[in-house]
Each structure stands twice: as C-alpha cells, then as structure tokens.
Amino acid sequence: MIYILEDDDSIRKLVTYALESQGYAATGFALPSAFYKAMEDGAPSLLLLDIMLPEEDGISILRKLRADPLTAHLPVIMLTAKSTEYDHVAGLDAGADDYVAKPFGMMELLARVRAVLRRAEARGNTESRNIYAADSRSTSPSEAADTEKGPATLSAGKPAAAAGGVSATSALPFSAEDAGAEPSTGRAGRSADAAAGSKNDVLKFGILRIYPKRYEVFVEDTEVSLTHKEYQLLLLLAENEGIVLTREILLDRIWDLGSEPENRTLDVHIRKIRSKLGGAAAWIETIRGVGYRFRPT
Question: How buried is 9 (Cβ within 10 angstroms: 0-12 exposed, 13-18 middle, 19+ buried)?
Fold first, then answer.
C-alpha cells in the first residue's frame, strides 16, 4: 500500500490513479489527521508526502515518523511546490528518501517510486515486497495505461503556487533512468529516453521527438512550428502518456481556466496541434465528455 498525503485534490487523485494504473494499491489523504488515523492500522510500504499542508507541515510529519521506531525506516518521497535549495536540504535532512518538486511528470514520479521501493527491498523492508511485484513486470507504462479501469475524472482545483501541473522537472540532479527506471519500449517504439527525458533532453515516440529544454518538436526529420501554448499542451499530454487528462486539468494547467470546462480554447489548440503533427496527429485521442489522452499507436 502506498499513501499519498497531499491537500490538492487534483494532484492527489491524479497520482493515485497513476499508481493504481501501474498495479500499486494507493490511498490518498488531504489532511494529516486523516493520515495519522490510517497509520493506527499499520504503516504503508511508501509515503508520498507534501510539505505545504493544513494542520501540520510535511517536514514536521516526517520528523515524527523518523522518531518513532515503528516508522523510522518507512520510505518517504517528498512532493512539494517549493523548489529552493533550502527546502530540498530540509526535506532530505529530515530523513526523506527522495524529493520531487512540482510540477513533475508522472513517468518521473513512477520511476522514483520504483527506485525507492527497490532500495527498501535491498535493506530488507519486508512490507515493500507486497507491492514490489508490480515493478518486475515487463509491461511498459504506456501498455499498462491501455488496461486502465477507466478515465480519471479529476477536479482541476486551484493549486497554490506551482502545485498543479506536470513536467519533466526534477528536484534532484539525476534522471528517471538514473533513479532506477526500467526501459520502456512502448507501441510506437518509444525509447528509454521518454522515461529519462531530463538525461538526454528528448522525449521519443516513434516518428515524434520533443526536446523540452529546447522547445523544439520534430515529426520524423521535419521541425514542427508550434505556438508557446500549443507546445506546452503537447508536452503536458506527452509527459503523461496513456493517462487521460480532463478538460479541467488541461485548462487549469495551461490557461488557469480550470473552472471553465466549456471554454473552447482547448479544443481549438488541440485541432491546431493535430494539423501540424502529420502521421502523429491521431496519437492525441479525444475522450468524449472527459478530456484528452496522448497514446502512440
């Protein structure tokens, strides 16, 4: 079981859904009090812990966990909108096993989850073995998403600072591949670079290549000219390959219009992106009544 203590509803639900789509059992909590109550029944195998929380901040919670012999070795990954060096050091000094700054990509987060569980397994954490089997499967993240139970219907919410959204941004100076992610081959020949874009500065999906740090997109060997918003939208979808992102989430992350799901701005941009992607246009799927999903075929 993986616990997620995160007060932003959209992030908590999206992370829970992403973990469950990979075969993990996951439960989310919006308040520390609810988390403490659940801990009375036993500790999870891993905790994803936000720093900025109501009732009590994540650093204080982490210190309490480390001071208790029953939870002293509980694997913890910090999730937070704070991205200063001081906050990184504070979380790690308090005993965090890893640290991911928002906005983050689901592929990166899943890679870090697997890496932390591997380390827990190596040091004899028997609880982690109950869910570690999911990591030994050869199924790639994109293939696992194909068997999802249904599209995630999430509330966009209004995250504080940069709390919402996803990107390849990492809080630590190493890539998802360095963190222990297994190579994924995907149905469109997606290479390990897609799961470790920060290392090679490229996301590869068959004929499509996206260079996040260079703001460049290529279909085969031809560069595609996208506006800034079109580029942001394509990158957000690609970084969450196989995961359905609701209209509310897309509007909130790109235009801060999450409360206006009927706004047609999103549809216009999707149509323009498709018109420029050539053979990759069909990879952006419309999930009627919900949102959009990027799924190479």
Answer: middle
